[in-house]
Specification:
mainly beta; Neuraminidase; five-stranded antiparallel sheet; five-stranded mixed sheet; 4% helix; signal; Lipoprotein
């Protein structure tokens, strides 16, 4: 049994050049109109360790909309129908039982947002490695108020809304979910397509659709993301598999994460997300953790990003690319 660790801040360091070497140079796979994104940067990194073995497959991460010092995470397929609140230094402070969630078939991401003054969390049960699920399920809850103390709190919340959705072009594996509270839309990014596809669905329907009658997501198109360079020695197909996505609070930046790199897309005023994400992103190297599947911007700070991975003990990293 893993002993519980107090979150230990290892000194703030600069990511090593070996990460950059692992990423290689970037190039666009579209030979008709090649776009060369900026070379990957080396972010400033601060590392912590999440102090509980309850979080053993962290596959989603979302900042609190209520507190600057709180993050929410979840475990993926087969895990409990629970969310876990951790501080921004990795201390487990609350376990949140999500009542009304049918199951954790494959919870793969988590998004937070505020709409009409209410703070929400949206859970994406959308993992589908074999691309066979006819529908995917999203659970919305109102984010509870958390008081951080010495003891771990146990709270429960009932699902506020269930969204059952299907893709317009057949089943897809997806691990990346973000919400824009301004247009009240949820955005999903496919994982295993050569060019990841962006989809969306509305969150403001008056009545939830029954499971037998799913909503159909809107396909917005492929995003621009670098393909593996010619000298890349790893799994070329998996180089740009997307495993995380988030929008910042101001609605001006999108983060997309892959196993090795992170990408930032900047949205101009009066521009939609697909237009912003079809331009070459700013690339930066991620820490050398295995199975990085979760990332979120800091609350009110688009210059800071938190990531974690499915390692155990689970690392938590704060990056400033």
């Amino acid at each position: 049994m893993l002993s519980f660790l107090r979150p230990a801040l290892r000194h703030t360091i600069t990511a090593s050049l070996m990460w950059l070497a692992a990423c290689g140079s970037s190039s666009n796979g579209d030979t008709d109109s090649p776009v060369e994104p900026p070379p990957p940067g080396i972010p400033t990194l601060t590392e912590y360790t999440i102090d509980t073995d309850l979080i053993n497959e962290s596959s989603g991460l979302a900042r609190s909309q209520r507190r600057d010092d709180l993050l929410w995470t979840l475990n993926d397929s087969g895990g409990a129908t629970s969310l876990y609140g951790i501080t921004t230094e990795g201390r487990h402070v609350v376990t949140l039982d999500v009542r009304g969630a049918l199951a954790n078939l494959d919870w793969e991401d988590l998004a937070s947002y505020t709409h009409d003054g209410v703070a929400y969390l949206l859970i994406g049960d959308m993992g589908d490695n074999s691309a066979f699920r006819p529908v995917t399920t999203f659970y919305r809850i109102v984010e509870p108020e958390v008081t951080i103390g010495d003891a771990v709190q146990s709270l429960s919340v009932t699902v506020d809304r269930i969204y059952t959705q299907a893709y317009p072009d057949g089943p897809r594996d997806a691990e990346s979910l973000a919400v824009d509270g301004r247009d009240h839309m949820a955005y999903v990014l496919s994982k295993r397509d050569a060019q990841p596809m962006l989809y969306r669905f509305p969150l403001d329907s008056l009545l939830p659709l029954p499971i037998a009658l799913p909503g159909i997501m809107e396909a917005l198109g492929p995003i621009e993301i670098p393909r593996a360079p010619a000298d890349f020695s790893g799994n070329v197909d998996a180089f740009n598999w997307t495993t995380a996505m988030d929008f910042d609070d101001a609605g001006t930046m999108a983060y997309v994460g892959t196993p090795l790199n992170g990408y930032w897309y900047q949205r101009q005023a009066d521009e939609d997300w697909i237009s912003a994400m079809q331009r070459a992103p700013r690339a930066f190297a991620l820490p050398p953790y295995s199975q990085i599947e979760a990332g979120t911007f800091a609350r009110t700070d688009a210059a800071t990003l938190y990531i974690t991975s499915e390692n155990l003990p689970a690392p938590l990293a704060r990056l400033r690319p």
